Amino acid sequence: MENMSIHDWTSQTDDPVNDEVRNNIIDYLNRIRVPIPSNNYDLYLKLEVTGKDVLDIGICAHTMERMRSPNWIHNIIRNNAKSAMGIDIIKDLIQQLQKDGLDVAVCDATSDEDLGRQFDVVHVGDVLEHVDNPVALMKFCGRHLRPGGKIIARTPNAHCFNYIHLQRKYGTEKSNLEHMFYICPIHAMELARRSKMRLTRYLTLYPGKLSIRGIARFLKYTLSFKFRHALAEFLTKPESYSTILVFEFKKTGLVHRFGHS
Question: Does residue 184 sit within a domain?
């Protein structure tokens, strides 16, 4: 049985740098990390939303051209879910989607607004790192989540080997100008705690190693003179290999405390 205190470190200590508690959390994070199926986020998402009622937060992909593409994430959700509602704060794009007959609305997902509906899955794709208040975003998700439902939150992985290389190349982070921060797995644990959630598992892309996929990618990158990427198929661990982190959260009744520094 899972030790529920792992989700609320303040039930064990007042010290946020207590080594024993942090090591227990690290052990938990290593246990709940799993591969993204076939290293394909779109496939994973299809499996998670098929036959379910889904709320998709932050659906606008900056331009209508991108949102006409079959690879637009909200299209993948719409084409597989039982029902799909999308929200965003970009009013003109949402209005165009409404004219196309999509179930979408203008809504700030860090607000106290209630959509009057609940969902089996709340998808938050590349949104967490953009918002002023990620706890408010998580609480919004929780209000719209049915019992037993899950939040799927995808976010960039700051510790990806190639991102670290680019930091060294430029002398500092060369990031999306709208990004506020990165969220590592241990930060996701704290985000969950403050939002009365549990981080139940997280997913990463995995290096191919000696699999057919790994050897194929090694040869592809080698022939393209991308030696750093080629070696990564064999030498990196999942946490350093993956460009993304995908967190899965569920609601809990834990009471949390603030004020630790």
Answer: yes
CB 199 within 8 A of CB 186: no
Inside any domain, residue 213: no
Residue 110 three-state SS: coil
Q: Is residue 224 part of a domain?
A: no
Place of tokens 């799927």: 152
What is the spatial distance between Cα 18 and Cα 151, in angstroms, rounded to a whole number? 29
Virtual CA dihedral for 234, 229, 154, 9, nearest 10 degrees? 50
Q: Using alpha carbons, select from 9, 27, 15, 38 the residue that is nearest to residue 211.
A: 38
3-state SS class at 250: strand
**CATH number of the CATH domain containing 103:** 3.40.50.150
CB contact burial 57-91 (16+ within 10 A = b; e otherwise):
bbbbbeeeeebeeeeebbbbbbebbeebbbbbeee
Asked if residues 57 and 104 have their Cβ atoms less than 8 Å apart, the reply is no
What total of structural domains would you count in the chain? 1
Tell me: the pLDDT tens digits for 22-75? 999 999 999 999 999 999 999 999 999 999 999 999 999 878 888 888 889 999
